[in-house]
Amino acid sequence: MRPGQICRVGGRFSRCQNSAAHSCQYCGRDFCVSHAYHVEEHDEVCARKQCQSKHDDLVAHMAYKRRVFERNHVGLCGIEECGPHPGFECSLCRGRFCGEHLTERMYPFSEGWVSIDRPVSICPRCWERRKIWRAR
How do residues 55-66 score in pLDDT, each as one tens digit? Predict the structure, then answer.
């Protein structure tokens, strides 16, 4: 963030006029202390709902991945209450799942300014995450 920047949180007619203290890691907007959602070490997240959702999702997803890998380490499907035989890998989180918990779908990937749908094997959690990360 450059010195002298103004907070860029708020609407067109209700923009905050405080001096910015941080830059959001998700949207890139500068924001002041009163519009901070999460600021810790190198993480700086503004109070916009989309940015809050992305931050919260990332924290939850990291915990999900840890649990999936713990289950996979002992030979179980990554989904709780499911048994052994995780024979398939999620294309996004790389966790292993049984055939019942993995689906073949077309998933949107960004290449520059273009979105291209590609086939993936995907677990339910990764499929739901696309709603948060694809929102504009």
Answer: 999 999 999 999
pTM of the predicted model, to two decimals? 0.83
How far apart (Å, rounded) are the C-alpha atoms in residues 4 and 26? 21
DSSP 70: H
Q: Is pLDDT of 116 > 70?
A: yes
CA distances from 11 to 7, 24, 48, 65, 81 (A): 11, 16, 11, 36, 45
Mean pLDDT computed over 41-48: 92
Spatial contact of 6 and 30, defined as CB atoms under 8 Å apart: yes
Residue found by looking up tokens 């590609």 in the block:
118
pLDDT band for position 42 (50/70/90)? confident
- CA 107 vs CA 13, 50, 112, 136: distances in Å: 37, 20, 16, 17
Cα Rg of the chain, angstroms: 19
